[in-house]
Structure to design on (365 residues):
């Protein structure tokens, strides 16, 4: 495949694999351990089939929506993925420009290779900041304040990473951030660097810097240091959805971290409905994990998601074609989602219902 011939989001992965150093490609692509959940995140979508409605006058399709009060062009947003400058020299700034051109939200990782200030200087755009809570709470508080000042509109608090999942490729490759790159958000702050070890350098970094004691009270603590709304990222059960709301979350992201943390958790699209039911409409529920097609977006919305986030397609398309690659990913997802809406007889997001799909969770596939 040549760049000009790319016709779907998945095709970027093989091209990125040819282009990137093995250590970098493996870091982006891998899941934890047996990578069962990694496959399942995709397979589960193929067990949901449509019940399309006909003769609905689909000459006009409206994909616009509102997330935490912000108007966006479509319910497809960008998940935080770390170290984007390993994929392309413009890294997170290219992603930010592509998201803003598409009229959607980008989430910047705490572990970005560009700072919150650099990303904000790319121009206007609605952006969220993903937070990893470290053992240095004053550093975290400073970073959250900087994100706020730089115009970020929400904090996505990642709650599924008290320790790093066992990603065997990173262990074999002795993964470490290439020496010309840094964790830009922490530059000059009192926090350790990522060193090369005889294990995954990132796993050691997490073990040294991330606060394993993170608990529900810290969701309250976060509210004392910022007025931004908090999305709890990494919920997979009804019980935790209820707790997240009880502890003040403005929204929930059903996520298994792209299958990179605990292996053998269900696909996010299978966990979605119980979380939606527990939320009882009190806060919006979002999903990430395996979203590669417009049909996936529709299926998540039919199960009650208010929107979805995409992870890996961003570093893969960045690696292949920089900002243009990320723009094309967002454009292809948008076009596919619009077509899915038309072919299933939905003219606006509120017309997408549970009756437009049927789940075949018992069918292997
Ligand atoms: C991630 N993810 C992630 N999550 C987070 O909260 N902070 C981070 O820094 C990262 N970094 C990161 C790097 C890479 C290479 C991947 C693949 C994932 C998880 C990410 O936000 C999201 O949950 C998943 O990527 C969604 O799944 P898909 O779309 O990659 O299948």
């Amino acid at each position: 495949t040549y760049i000009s011939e790319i016709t779907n989001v998945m095709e970027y992965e093989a091209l990125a694999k040819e282009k990137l150093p093995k250590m970098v490609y493996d870091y982006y692509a891998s899941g934890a351990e047996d990578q069962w959940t990694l496959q399942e995140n995709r397979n589960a979508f193929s067990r949901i089939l449509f019940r399309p409605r006909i003769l609905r006058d689909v000459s006009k399709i409206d994909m616009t929506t509102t997330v935490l009060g912000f108007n966006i062009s479509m319910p497809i947003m960008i998940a935080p993925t770390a170290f984007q400058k390993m994929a392309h020299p413009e890294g997170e700034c290219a992603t930010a420009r592509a998201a803003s051109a598409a009229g959607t939200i980008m989430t910047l990782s705490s572990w970005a290779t560009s700072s919150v200030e650099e990303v904000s200087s790319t121009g206007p755009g609605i952006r969220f900041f993903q937070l990893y809570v470290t053992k240095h709470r004053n550093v975290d508080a400073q970073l959250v304040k900087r994100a706020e000042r730089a115009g970020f509109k929400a904090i996505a608090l990642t709650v599924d990473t008290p320790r790093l999942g066992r990603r065997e490729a990173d262990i074999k490759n002795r993964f470490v951030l290439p020496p010309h790159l840094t964790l830009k958000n922490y530059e000059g702050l009192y926090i350790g660097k990522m060193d090369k070890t005889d294990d995954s350098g990132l796993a050691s970094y997490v073990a040294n810097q991330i606060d394993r004691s993170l608990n529900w009270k810290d969701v309250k603590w976060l509210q004392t240091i910022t007025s931004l709304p908090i999305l709890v990222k990494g919920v997979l059960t009804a019980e935790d959805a209820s707790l997240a709301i009880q502890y003040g979350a403005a929204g929930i992201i059903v996520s298994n971290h792209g299958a990179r943390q605990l292996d053998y958790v269900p696909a996010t699209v299978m966990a979605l409905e119980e979380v939606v039911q527990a939320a009882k409409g009190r806060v919006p529920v979002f999903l990430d994990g395996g979203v590669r097609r417009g049909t996936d977006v529709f299926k998540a919305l039919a199960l009650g998601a208010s929107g979805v986030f995409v992870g890996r397609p961003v570093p893969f398309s960045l690696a292949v074609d920089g900002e243009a690659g990320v723009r094309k990913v967002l454009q292809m997802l948008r076009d596919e989602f619009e077509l899915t809406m038309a072919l299933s007889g939905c003219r606006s997001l509120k017309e997408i219902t549970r009756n437009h799909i049927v789940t075949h969770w018992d069918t292997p596939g």
